[in-house]
Each structure stands twice: as structure tokens, then as C-alpha cells.
Amino acid sequence: MALLEVRNLDVTFASWGGNLVALRDVSFSLEPGERLGIVGESGAGKSVAAFAILNLISRPGYISGGEILFEGQDLTQLSPQEMRSIRGNRISMIFQDPMMTLNPVLTVGVQMTEVLHAHREISAEEARSRALQTLTRVHISSPEKRFDQYPHELSGGMRQRVVIATALLTESSLIIADEPTTALDVTIQAEIMDLLLELCELNNVGLILITHDLSVISQVSQHAIVMYAGRVVEAGPIWEIVNNAQHPYTQGLIGALPQQTTPGKRLNQIRGVMPSLSNIPEGCAFNPRCQLVMEVCRTSVPTYTNIGSTRVACHAAGSAQTGNPLSLEHNKT
Length: 333
Known about the structure:
- The protein is an alpha/beta fold and 333 residues long.
- The chain has a domain at 248-332.
- The chain is 31% helix and 22% strand.
- The chain has 11 helices and 12 strands.
- It has helices spanning 46-53, 80-86, 98-101, 108-119, 124-137, 143-147, 156-168, 186-203, 214-220, 238-243, 248-255; strands at 4-13, 20-30, 35-39, 61-70, 73-74, 91-94, 174-178, 206-211, 223-228, 231-237, 304-307, 310-313.
- The strands form 2 sheets. Strands 6-7-8-3-9-10-12-11 form an 8-stranded mixed β-sheet, sandwiched between helices. Strands 2-1-4-5 form a 4-stranded antiparallel β-sheet, covered by helices on one side.
- Helix 7 runs parallel beside helix 8.
- The protein is globular and about 65 Å long.
- InterPro entries: AAA+_ATPase, ABC_Ni/Peptide_Import, ABC_transporter-like_ATP-bd, ABC_transporter-like_CS, Oligopep_ABC_C, P-loop_NTPase.
- It is found in: Cell membrane.
- Keywords: ATP-binding, Cell membrane, Membrane, Nucleotide-binding, Transport.
- Pfam families: ABC_tran, oligo_HPY.
- Residues 6-254 form the ABC transporter domain.
């Protein structure tokens, strides 16, 4: 049985001007211990998908269709109280900015032990001991000292390690990491990603990694889904996607990476911008920006086509010129 299975998920935001559909027919699955990357520009719907899994869509947004099966249980049918027993317990989330995640007026120790007391019958002494052990697991030096410090007393990388440690406290089966390295410098980013990979492999924890950077996905994930304007446009094993991208949008994301450009030359970019929810183009949403656009692209939403092990929504699927492979060491597992 899959750890997580999202089937035909729709998310809608009600407004005075009419309903705005943020996710359209999104489907993917995750096996225990598997690492899945979700990639796309800002506004693609990546974070909305993550919040929908945890039932954290704020009003006027709501899940308007589909199923979210976690360990066989449909999360969309659970009461708020039942969701609280899963959120932060069986499924944990790591947000972009640790300073926004951590409460500045509470010590690290208080915030970590609160999680344990919320989900476990445990004494204060046992909670402290488990928190210290988890801080050690994420390679934080002097955990006893850090336990009694406030978030502002820690570096950005240290704060993110605390957030990861908190996510591991309850031995979750699934961790959702939403741009977990955005607020960090490049060297710390690499350390955090290596840490996430190590912890998932050691503990057989499923990971959903959300990012705009395909190079990060290629290093950590086994499978990937590429999203555009609230829809999955390409999905499959990461090795196939980065070496044989079929959708023009995926090809554009790969071509826009700095390592795909000759040093000293102008970076490549995808022309145009992501459409707003109130102005999604007819047909294929990517058609105004696509260099392979055909008349059918402007009138008909493409269905999914299987090419090898990938699934792609493009009228030119199979005939489009493949973009340059990603010039990195890839995760082949």
C-alpha cells in the first residue's frame, strides 16, 4: 500500500469575482521511504498541494474535489480533531523560514517538548531526553546548551536543523519540506539537504520536497512532478526528467539553471510570467510562453501521455525537441 496517494485533487478559492481554481486534477503517489520532488515557479501550486495534504488551506480556500489517501485513510474526510492527531505526528512539515516557524519568545526546548506533549503521554524528563537525542541526530553541537536558547541566539542553519529535529520527534512517516533552504546561504543549503537525505534513508521516512530548483530535486529525489498553473505537466523518475524532459516548461526550467549557461553569458529564461488564477489561458495554460505552441494548444487542454516512465501533458509530447540534460550528478536510485 502506498504511503500517500493523491487522486484528482482540486483546490478552489471563492471570491466575489467567481471561484479561482488553484489546483486542477493533481495526482501522485509516494511509497514508504520514497523521496518525491515538486518543482515549478512561484504560483505553480506547489505549496497549495502541500497545505492541502495537511488540511491547512485557509478560507476562502477549500478542497473542491479528489482524495488524499494517507496509509489508506482519506484525509479529506477527517474531522479537525482527527487531523490534529495526524498533523505534526504522522505527517510533519518543514517551512521555508525557520524564524517564522519558531516562536521567538520561547526557548528551543519548550517548543520541541510541546510537540511531544501534544501527541504523546510522556513526562517532562522523558520529553527533554528525547528532544536532546533528536538534536544530536541532526548534528547540532552542544544540544544541552541549544535546548535552553532562544531562536535568535542560533544561526540560520542551526534554526533550520532545530525545525527538522522537531519534525523528527514523533517519528513521522512523511515529512513535507516546503523550500527548506530558501533563507539559507549556499553552503548551508547543501548541508541541510544532505541532512534530510541522510535522515530519510536511515529512518525510511517518505519525503516531499517542494522547490523551484530542479538541480536540488535531482540531488535528493527519486521521482519528481513538475507543476504549472495548478496542474501537473510532467511526472516521472527524476533521472528521466532531467535527462529527457518532454514538456517545454520542464525544458525551460532546466535551461534556466546557471550551470546550463556559459560563464560570463546572460542566463537563459522562460519568456513571460506565470498566469494569475483569475487569468488562466484557454487550452494549455503554458501556451502564451511556449516556443512550440500550435493552434490546438490555444483551444484544448492536453491530456496525459506516457512516454517511457514519464507522464506528460503536452500536445507535442513525443515530438518536442528534448532540452539539454542537467549537467549534474543525479540520484539514480
